[in-house]
Amino acid sequence: MTAQAPPPAAAAERPAPARDRAAPGRRRPVRRERQGPAYIFLSPWILGVVLLTLAPMAVSLYLSFTDYNLFDPPKWVGLRNYAEMFTEDPRYWRSVGTTLLYVVVAVPLKLALALGVALLLNSMRTGKGFYRSAFYAPSLLGASMSIALVWRALFNDGGTVDELLSGVGINTGGWVADPDLAVFVVVLLTVWQFGAPMVIFLAGLQQIPTDVYEAAALDGAGRWRQFVSVTLPMLSPVLFFNLVLETIQSFQVFTPAFAISAGKGGPADSTNFYTLYLYERGFSASHMGYASAMAWVLLLAIGAVTVVLFRTSRSWVFYANEEG
């Protein structure tokens, strides 16, 4: 009998070729040969950002330091537009006050209504999908000019709302023509579009574990205590997200104010929102340099408000992965 050769253990333990091992202390070179197709696919987005966002912003910043009437070449005037805005234009400050009033009133009302409806839908067993779609529909339609015109007709003198209020002895003569009530027509139109934050609230409510409510009930917590101590803290990130989005959007309100005031901000500048006044100075009065300065002040103001919201959120927004 012939003896069998032992298994080639040495061959099995043979080290890998030198080209497959990285030398100690050296990194493998990053492969860049396949980044070309990525940039090709990203090029439409990059071109869109540069041509439709960054370039117009740069031009607008330059025009804010010029006197430009859309027809003649812009003339450099330095900070004159900003000085006139802050010291010589009372209508500018009225537009700021009107916009702040709208933001302070509309945003809390819209979020409160959205959260209330989301709580009701979350407790429903049947028909949740239908009602969710029905309540979300105004968010899709409310931003259109046609809906804003219908809203104006409802609150005008002799409109449906005026007739209903007159039937119970409240004679307003139409909200649109009343300087004290006209801004609330825009507020109600905004609050009516609560569907988008409602859907986000509903998604957040469905992520709260039911055993948390069961534990709170065993401790003797009622519905209100569960809402304050369980629902709001666990929903605070969603609430913060909706608050930031709605605040930014409210500072930029334009279409409802334009439609309800017929583009004039009346009566008595009561609906002359910031963006509507910006449009008037830029396109109606052909002071595009002044309008550009207003746009940049609005951008800085929204940025400052957003920073304040993020800073203050540390004291009332709680995330699941936080300790303590």
Automatic annotation (TrEMBL):
It is found in: Cell membrane. PANTHER family: ABC TRANSPORTER PERMEASE PROTEIN, ABC TRANSPORTER PERMEASE PROTEIN YESP-RELATED. It comes from Streptomyces armeniacus. GO terms for cellular component: plasma membrane. Belongs to the binding-protein-dependent transport system permease family. The lineage of its organism: Bacteria, Bacillati, Actinomycetota, Actinomycetes, Kitasatosporales. Residues 1-30 are annotated as: Disordered. GO terms for biological process: transmembrane transport. The keyword Membrane applies. It is a multi-pass membrane protein. This is Sugar ABC transporter permease. The chain crosses the membrane at residues 38-65, 100-121, 133-154, 181-205, 226-245, 288-310. Signal peptide: none annotated. The keyword Transport applies. Keywords: Cell membrane, Membrane, Transmembrane, Transmembrane helix, Transport. Residues 96-309 form the ABC transmembrane type-1 domain.
